[in-house]
Amino acid sequence: MIAYSVIVAYEAIHTTQSKMKGSKGFMALKMDMSKANNRLEWSFLETVMRKIGFNSRWIALILRCVSTVSYSLLINGIPQSNFQPSRGIRQGDPLSPYLFILCSEALTQLINKAELARQITGIPIAMGKLYITHLFLADDCMLFYQAVEMEWRKMLEIVNQYEEVSGQRINKNKSSLFFSKNTNLSSKNFLTSMAGIRGTNSQDKYLGLPALVCRSRCKEFKAILDRVSTKMNHWKHKFLSQAWREIMLKVVIQAIPTYSMRVFKLPKSLLRQLYSLIKGYWWGLLKYFPKSDFLNAKVGSNSSYIWRSILSARELLKVGLHWRIRNAKSMRIWSDPWLPQPTTFIPQSGNKSLGEEAKVEALMISDGKEWNLPLINEIFCSREAELIKQLPISHSNQPDKLIWRNNANDCFTVKSPYHLQGDLQHKEKSQSSFINNKRDQQWTKLWKMNLPPAVKNFLWRACQNILPTKNNLYKRKVLDIPICPMCLSEPETVEHILWECASANDVLSQLFRTIQKTRIVANFGVELGMRRIILEGDSKKVVTEFNLKKHNGSYFGMIISDVQATMTKLEACRVSHVHREGNYIAHNIAKAALYVSDYVVNMEETPLFYHFL
Predict the structure, then answer these.
(1) Over the stretch 135-194, which tens digit does the pLDDT of each residue have?
(2) Which residue among 127, 308, 401, 489 is the one 20 to 30 A from 214 at the CA level?
(3) 336 and 401 Cβ atoms separated by less than 8 Å
(4) What count of Cα atoms within 13 Å lies in the side-chain half-sphere of residue 588?
(5) How far is CA 34 from CA 171, 173, 197, 383, 531, in A?
(6) What is the dihedral of CA 114, 119, 125, 129, to 10 degrees?
(7) pTM exceeds 0.90, yes or no
């Protein structure tokens, strides 16, 4: 019903605009009622229903539905006491449009009466066999008559009379007048000034659609793009999931242009813009491949990790996808899989004289229904040329289709890449050599060894040569020099630092022995019942490690922790650093002890060599 009203109104306005000749012009008034729902008088509604002939009980039921409503105002967020209105109907009530139609019958009767009295004429249509004076649909009104003062005054009189009895008021700022092209400018100015209603505007709408469609059709229907863009911008900040976006596009966005498409044929350029907006919203505002498709999109410099993760799975899709030739306009000769041969399905021969991005369409005759045999024989080797010439060509001019070649029905399912990945892994394992299998067995033995996980991880990293040695950091351009800082003679590789560097081995062994001796001395003092001990040493690194309160994660950390636990059992214990010259006697006693093979403890007597120090 709405579509019919729009069609009739548009044709009537078009007739008005098309009248170029004649002494009498036509005009149309698009009336916009101000607060139409709130102003309707209940007494007027009751009178109209009685005049039409409704049963008294029915009228009472309708008035009861309308008049028993109550409202409450929110002031500073606090609801106030309820009050009952004396007129108006509720907006959104499914009964309200029908009540408006009933009330508009009163205005219809006034117009029909004036038409019978030849006080207004209306607009002729159907070669002058039919005249239209008005179109009503709920609170949307359109009036048609001749652009003369007499008819205009009569129409204003009818409208004023309707306003007085119904309570309705015309919104003159939103109402507009349409004049035929043969109406002179002075008449237009006079008629518009009489009622204070503005002249026509190309942006005026009737029932939500353009009342006039000029040459620039995209401009007239730009409101559709604006509505779609507004909706999408609002949803963009809600971080909707892909499923929700699909629902919103199908239910909300696709419904916006549908109303206009029931009446008007939308321009192709507008539809392309609309499609671009929808595609942009669906794929995340075209962030990642605005000028290509998913299969050919490249990883940008500022791509998110999830996008990089998606693209990592794309390579598996490319292995299973294959092009089915139809119009051959989408497939690239040298980079897309379209040949019916195994392995790559991409031509390996050819001089590429057609260009790197040439389409398969270039291998056909101009009508696209036959292969260009001389060109194919010239470019490709004999084997690939025969494969191409055997491919059938579709005459339907349908777009090329991507298929999944590993399925019998060529359809892609969620299981398809899973099965393909399994096949590829099985093939890769079957082609692995005996050496690789032997290496796998060795790694298995390593991980099953009864060692701390950190030690096994260190061994694995050392075998893989991924320890942060000077040489590895030099190769990655982190350091400028790969020389070992201990021996200053060879590059610091994994082999060098673990086995070949004599300086490193000496340092590690000496450090370990010093820490071990410190633990022996501390435990010996506790066994003797000493409560206060001072431990002195010439290794500043060892002294520093013992005095640190935090946990030591080094290779010798366990021994250091044991000594620190022993020190807590004493009343006072201090570990101090002294230079070797300041601890000369203790150093020489320790040096002389290297020549003593037995375990000796001197408590009351000093060794003989002590007297010579």
Answers:
(1) 777 667 788 888 888 888 888 888 888 888 888 888 888 787 878 777 878 888 888 887
(2) 127
(3) no
(4) 12
(5) 5, 10, 14, 80, 101
(6) 90
(7) no
DSSP 8-state assignment for residue 366 = T
Decide: 328 and 364 in contact? Cβ < 8 Å: yes
User: 3-state DSSP: the chain helix, strand, coil percent, rounded to 5?
Assistant: 50, 10, 40
Please name which of 136, 139, 131 lies closest in space to residue 115, comparing C-alpha atoms: 131
Domains in the chain and their CATH numbers?
2-72+81-210 (no CATH), 217-286 (no CATH), 434-463 (no CATH), 470-500 (no CATH), 504-612 (3.30.420.10)
Number of CB atoms found within 10 A of residue 76's CB: 4
Side chain identity, residue 63: L
Condensed to tens digits (0 to 9), the pLDDT of residues 395-429 reads 667 778 888 877 767 777 878 878 888 877 777 66
Structure tokens at 418: 């899973």
The C-alpha atoms of residue 374 and residue 366 are separated, in whole angstroms, by 14
314 to 144, 220, 307, 443: CA distances (angstroms) = 63, 42, 11, 31
Question: Alpha helix (H) ranges present in 449-492?
Answer: 453-463, 470-475
What does the block give as tokens for 247?
């629902």
Residues 6+ apart with CB under 8 A from 156: 194, 195
